[in-house]
Predict the structure.
Amino acid sequence: MSNVTVFSDLQATYPAAEKSFCPSERYPEYRLERLSATPNRVYAAVRKTLEWAGLDREHFGTAAWNPLGQYVPPQSRVFVLCNFVLHRREAQNELAGQAMCTHGSVVRAVVDYLLIATGPEGRITIGNAPLQSANWDSVLRQTGTSAVLDFYREAQQPVGARDLRVTVSERDLLGRVVRSEQRGSSGVVAVDLGCRSLLDAVPARSLFRVMDYDPERTKSCHGNARHIYLMNREPLEADVVFSIPKLKTHEEVGLTCAIKGFVGAVAEKDCLAHHRKGAPACGGDEYPHDSLFMRSLSGFHDWVYRHPPDTLIRNAGVLVNRNLERVARKLGKIRGGAWYGNDTAWRMAVDLARILHFADQSGKMQDTMQRRHLALIDGIVAGEGNGPLAPRPAQCGTLVFGDNAVAVDLAAAYLMGFDAARIPILAQAAQPSDFALSDGLAALRQESVCFNGNPMPIAGLRPVLGRPFLPPKGWIGHVEAGGA
């Protein structure tokens, strides 16, 4: 049985960063010095969520309370996997950025309780592998995570941060690469799932793609009975992975919470199969309907990104490609696998979830889980519409905690007003397999969840906004509970 707990209060908002997100009340278990002079509703919400989860109930209200202790032994190495997908762009305001990335106030509260569990001999690393073009320092600053790290540094706590990417690029406002950095690959672990990958079930003639990356590089990672994921070593070396994803929609898989968040542990993004080239009639899922225009646009995109970054032909091609994409959007075209018929991205994401659970430090898959996984979904400000990069902010005041990624995501789907059976990343992740992540969707629906202190079946959860989240454009009418 999973332990899933939901906190929901529309009045809960993110506190100001200048106080390093300290609690505003000296709780008995709080072991650090500084307090916030202004209310911190998020810290209180995380604490209440862990209380409602029934963790270390016998010590609650005392200095000995250690809610995460039953999952995180002393001296553990913990990797805190956030959603730091991209820095806030000039056209986005602060609220839009809050809908896109994990907020530092949630990170701070979670890490405080992890420090109680691990003790001084443990090690906690906060990290993610954002897009290649993401500015890591800007992401940390804009989310408030820099203030959290500064606080722990001053308090001499064993907490650090890690950008998990191997390749980092800088783009100008026109999308052209102006600088590219290739970091050492010593921290990369190649995990080949072979015929046990969910991608191996698709037709052998399929051409896997990921937007804005060299298609030949993606092709080299995937073929018949060969499906290689280039993971960063650090999460695989952790004893516990604690995910703090966003409550957010995703145009390729419907929603992005704990399961899709495992993409953030990949060191090289071009190994990730996001869609298959072409329309379904041609064996692909890149766009719904075949046409000469869409085939030409797809082919030109591939030609552009086969050229190395920082070259004149690549950057000139990017400008032309962007203008063609604008034309496609004005014509109402869906491309890049951004629709409900995407049969590839969910397979890749579930593959990664299985790797993070079952792969050992060397990347070899084992029959038993190799590390504990916990998750706390940050839905204080959630994202609806065209996530993950351009979500519309939704003030939800919601947190979802759990010790099973599939169960947590299932609860999130109900809270968003979505039908899990119509979201393959959930329905398929719950299926029995060699690397089972749960006992099946039907069983999970009947499991109990604690909602604001009250037990109920997960299937009893209702939309936290009083209505379904607005799905991404390509999912409208195909993901909402009770939809056509």
Notes: The mean pLDDT is 94. Residues 312-330 form the longest helix (19 residues). Residues 4-272+342-475 form one domain.
